[in-house]
Design a protein that fits this description.
Helices cover 35% and strands 18% of the residues. By secondary structure, the protein is of the alpha/beta class. The longest helix has 14 residues, at 118-131.
């Protein structure tokens, strides 16, 4: 791991069919889908790569059309969109796609936390690095 400038992968899991609130990641806050807010915030942070991962083409299209920066879009398999699937399983799936050698840290950014700021993400990076 590099000590001066660690590389950090940001992953935004954006499932389409939440049990309690269907399509919650596309819910609008101030006219913008939650997943788009998350992607915009993440792309403005010090994350080296932001990946929006969803089984839903509608979710990926919303991010693509929103001009939020340059996130990578990942259409993941349906079996990785189950209700009880932990975000760590999605990160493991993405790392198996060839990213593991490139990043010192991985961060999960949930779309349903809309008031998280770029500064919050950067502070979490600092905490991870300081505490190794």
């Amino acid at each position: 791991m590099s000590t001066s400038h660690p590389s950090v992968l940001g992953m935004i899991p954006a499932r389409a069919n939440s049990k309690r609130l269907p399509n919650k990641n596309m819910a609008l806050l101030n006219g913008e889908p939650l997943v788009v807010r998350a992607a915009r915030t993440a792309c403005r942070s010090r994350l080296d790569l932001v990946i929006v991962s969803s089984e839903s083409q509608e979710v990926l299209d919303a991010v693509s059309e929103a001009n939020v920066g340059d996130p990578r879009l990942d259409r993941r398999p349906m079996h990785l969109s189950a209700d009880d699937l932990l975000p760590t399983e999605i990160i493991k799936y993405l790392l198996r796609q060839g990213l593991q050698a490139e990043y010192d840290y991985a961060m999960c950014i949930q779309p349903d936390i809309p008031f998280r700021t770029t500064e919050d993400i950067n502070a979490m990076i600092d905490i991870a690095v300081e505490n190794d």
